[in-house]
Amino acid sequence: MGLGLFASDLVSISLSIWLAILIWKPISADRSTVEDFFWFFQFVFPILVSMFALRGLYPGIGMNRVVELKRLVITTVFGNVMTMSFMLLFRIIFRGDAVVFVLLGILSLGLIPLSRWIVRGGLIHLHLWGEPVIVFGFGDESMELLDHLRRFKKLGWRAVAVVDGSGKAGDALKIPLIPGNAWVEDTAIASSYQNVKTAIISYSEVTEPILSQLVNNQLNGFSRLIFLSGWEYLRKAWVTPVDLGGLLGLEVQQNLLK
Fold first, then answer.
1. How many CB atoms lie within 10 A of CB 254?
2. 225, 199 contact by CB (below 8 A)
């Protein structure tokens, strides 16, 4: 999945550089357009991709589209400015070449998000996109989550099982429904999902024994646990987790335009 986005960025950055050079025309009479391309590519691509990785844009799973676009825009602009400054400082390019970076920035801001959107759609069509997750808890909140994951497949989380922590029955599921006591007592069931490293937990719908064992890393060895708050009034708010020195807080941001 991350490799697909990496290939997408490779193509879009390369195309942006090529188009920027063609629009501005070859800057130096001593170099051809192809030479110009490789001259800029060897600096721009490694820096941008490294910054994308540092900003968590690979593999791009579970990331809000607005957050991803914001990170792409900020990182692309900052990366191009930093690369241009570096090349000007060490006289790798001259002031006339800086126009290429202006064009490159404009083109890449459009091509990079567009190519990522296309690649995600193609991978979804080929059933190659999505990290498997297990949902713990079966009630209204869990059903809403499952419906959300089905409708927003580009989010990148694919539910492969539901552990029924509350003991309720589910008739409309197209994925395995595992009783909570069976998940805890039958080690063979948990072992069959060893490749799943992420669990999404509906806090209000999971029994205490299952919740305790999940937090203490005694069930399946999940590397990441995601808790649903269950607070209805926060669902449409912009919520950010805050580390309060070992305590978890949720910050609700308001009046964002002021």
1. 7
2. yes
Q: Which residues of 65-86 are buried (b: 16+ CB within 10 A; e: fewer)?
A: eeebbebbeebbeebbeebbee
Burial tier of 208 (Cβ tally within 10 Å: 0-12, 13-18, 19+): exposed
* Spatial separation of the C-alpha atoms in residues 193 and 206, rounded to whole Å: 19
Closest by Cα among 108, 96, 104, 97 to 12: 108
Give the three-state DSSP class for 159: strand
Nearest-angstrom CA–CA distance, 69 and 67: 6
The pTM score is: 0.82
Q: How far apart are CA 62 and CA 157, in angstroms?
A: 6
Per-residue pLDDT tens for 158-190? 999 999 755 454 555 678 888 888 888 887 888
Q: Using alpha carbons only, give the angle 31, 37, 42 rounded to the nearest 5 degrees.
A: 115
